[in-house]
Amino acid sequence: MKVKTEIYLSIVILISIGSAIEAQMLNPAIDREDEPFCYFSQPCDVIGVMDNPEGTLVTPEGYLYTGFAEYVFFTDNPPQPVKQRVKTLLRGYLPVIQYQFIREDVKYQFTMFAATLDGQAESPLMNFVRIKIKNVGTEQRMAHLSIATRYQNDANTDWGVGDNRFSRPARAEYLGGYEQAGEEFDQNWEYDFSSEAFLRDSLVMYLYPSEPKPEKLIVLKTGYSELPEIGAMRIPILPTTPVGIVNYHLALDPGAEKDLDFKIPYQPVSLDNPLLQKLRDARFDDYLNQTIDFWENIFARGISISLPEDKVVQAFMANLVYDLIARNKIGENYIQKVNEFQYDSFWLRDASYIVRMYDVSGYHDIARQCLDFFPRWQREDGNFVSQNGQYDGWGQTMWAYGQHYRITGDQDFARQVFPAVLKAFYWLQQARRGDSLGVIPVTTPGDNENITGHVTGHNFWALAGLKNAIFLADGLGKKSEATAFRKEFHDFLSRLTTHLRNLTAGTGGYIPPGLEGQPGSDWGNMMAVYPEIILDPFDPMVTATLEATRRKYQEGIMTYDFGRYLHHYLTMKNTETEVIRGDQEAVIQELYAILLHTSATHTGFEFSIRPWQIRDFGMNMSPHGWFSAKYRTLLRNMLLREQGEDLHLLSCLSPEW
């Protein structure tokens, strides 16, 4: 896969070099031959625990960022900050971040993961870091390793937040809303050391090894080069100032190595908290093995795909982990969020796809837990809305309910949700009767298509939802309701299709994002065939829309906002349609383009990266849960998919397989 992605990247760069001459370009030297390929210039990663409310950001440089502090690593003397862009996962897919580099014949190998001390998802999250330091030269070498905290890194954007970091703290205004545990920076914090810990306001920020004996500094430098003082002190530092530094200076003979283990609570721990002793006693290897066993057991429960390309398979596995880490258990609620960073929130649109991924992967219990959170988004009038104006939530919920029933045959589930389905149906009837076009009403979703009007995709979603409401009614023997649902579906489809044919007569067949034909970003207009077949896959409107949107690709994937940005998972709306149409060459081209635009840890992004420039998503960080779900579902559907009453095997195969 590494060779294939490099060849593909070279081809697309050569094709488009003319359009990139005036753009800000990235130095290709960052992509080294001795490292796995990482598309992002500033990759972000997560370490965390399934269902835990928090997740630690592994920064582009290789630091750890929580709601309370950033933990920075240094090498050399005087200390120089570590900056290691490319990182990998243990075994290629486990949420154990690894990276390494060599400085003057000394190899530094970092291993990072997160766990709870009692194995319970809701318990406080702890970060474990091991740094293995080895002399790989032929002469004795001095190795230098330091750790420090700071509140944040440099902030060069208009957000007032450190670059490639998330905003914190944040309190959720409602269950499922954006939240981040943490605290604001305080210049009056008191700093101190104990024999094993760095303290901020008498709270343990991290535990460090006392052997070999380290050098301890409150700050790296003093104003007049005075001898550093040690002891409790309040100093007027900035949020970006490293503080609480522990330095290790190691004389290593050739081949000698030393492990340094650090334990970092996500939320600082008080000295009298019983949890602190448990953290002291926690052995790195024990918790690493527990972490490995937990995730391997998760994989053993679900679908397994074996292909002769490691990247394809490892990305499939790792992206299950990313979605499970993004799920939060709060009380009795399982809340499927998008990630633990800037999208630490619930959306019906993202969650419905993620639920589908769980179901087609064999994790029906996990899918059901997520679906149990959907009813709270049904309004009194019957509509399902998680964010104002986003009326696609109606169809997404009906689809999520129906597909879960279709794949599990769970009658209890169907009976439980059917009253909400019926209430939602009545909303749809009333909404359509009151609309001039007889479709989903005019709205301003404030996202995706970024239009005000009759949103094309909301109507495709509503029809997809109706199809699944019919499955539920049929399965429960609700004959009169099933008849009403079918009648509504056919009338709705007829009205929408008639309007689309009139509209596309002036667009060359291209289906626009809005039914008024106004300018907007391609999104739901690309969904006439998937996730449910609404129009015939070979309808001229489908073909024209595929061709028109593919002409907007840059770097092999879809663009967004009138070509301003690349959009990673939006591409797969076309790819899934192409799978159903049997366009194998297009599917395989897009599969490899999609994989090309991931990190070495297989994370995907949303948008914010400008084509042919610096490959930096800024504050729109990876991993993105919708990408994770769509990639896994796409690969599964290429190999095994349902269409009506038929089961399709091996719809699209790479020549490499």
Shape: elongated
How confident overall, as mean pLDDT?
96
The helix-and-strand class reads: alpha+beta
The major sheet is characterized as: 8 strands, antiparallel
Count every beta strand, where a strand is a DSSP E run of 2 or more residues.
Answer: 23
Q: Specify the helix fraction band.
A: 25-40%
Termini Cα gap: 12 Å
Low-confidence stretches: 11-21
Query: Proportion of β residues?
Result: 15-25%
Verbal overview:
- This protein is of the alpha+beta class.
- Among the domains are: 53-288; 378-549, Glycosyltransferase.
- Helices cover 33% and strands 18% of the residues.
- The protein contains 14 helices and 23 strands.
- The strands form six sheets. Strands 1, 2, 3, 4, 5, 10, 14 and 15 form an eight-stranded antiparallel sheet that branches.
- Helix 1 (2-20) crosses helix 13 (584-596), helix 5 (348-360) packs antiparallel against helix 6 and helix 8 crosses helix 9 (456-475).
- The longest helix is centred in the C-terminal third of the chain and has 26 residues, at 479-504.
- The N and C termini lie close together (12 Å).
- The model is unreliable at 11-21 (pLDDT under 50).
